[in-house]
Amino acid sequence: MSISYDQDNIFAKILRGELPCDKVLETDHSLAFRDIAPLAPDHVLVIPKGAYICFEHFSKEASVEEMADFVHSVGEVVRLMGIDPGSGGGGYRLISNAGMDGGQEVPHFHVHVVGGRRLGPILAATNA
Ligand code: AMP
18-54 in b/e burial notation, b at 16+ Cβ within 10 A? Predict the structure, then answer.
């Protein structure tokens, strides 16, 4: 059984212009905007404009052009945020949650770009 894309998810509504967002970057195939509940001083979400549920779905069905655009957009967001350690920034973390175990809240593929403070270990050590 495969799960179908929910056209009414929050990010689909943002892409259709039905909900506002604090836009950071827009390209032909991708959109980046600030997270509404930031977990760090810098917290931006990068999403493809296509209807993809999670990373695996995107990797299987997106065109090479969409994938290249998305990867470039994530890098461009890092540069715009000034957090690239190669350019003197403090560094950052990319996170993409998927499904129930991944704790995904919005079923439209997205990458969190998080930085602006020391982020600590990637996962809590409890309940391993
Ligand atoms: P995830 O758990 O990976 O699905 O994360 C979804 C993220 O979307 C959370 O960090 C939310 O704070 C964020 N979010 C939910 N609604 C909005 C919105 N309208 N604008 C910006 N970010 C949002």
Answer: eeebeebbeeebbbbbebeeeebebbbbbbbbbbbbb
119 lines ligand 1 (CB under 6 A): no
pLDDT per residue of the chain (128 residues) written in tens, 0 to 9: 478 999 999 999 999 999 999 999 999 999 999 999 999 999 999 999 999 999 999 999 999 999 999 999 999 999 999 999 999 999 999 999 999 999 999 999 999 999 999 999 998 776 56
Rg, Å, the chain Cα set: 15
Is pTM beyond 0.90? Reply is yes
Kindly report the protein residue whose alpha carbon is nearest to atom 12 of ligand 1.
37
Q: Are 62 and 21 contacting, i.e. CB atoms less than 8 angstroms apart? A: no
Is 110 marked active-site? yes
Dihedral angle, C-alpha 29, 34, 39, 40, nearest 10 °: 100
Query: What's the 113 CA to ligand 1 centre distance in angstroms?
Result: 12
Is there a contact between 2 and 39 (Cβ–Cβ < 8 Å)? no
Contact between 19 and 10 (Cβ < 8 Å): yes
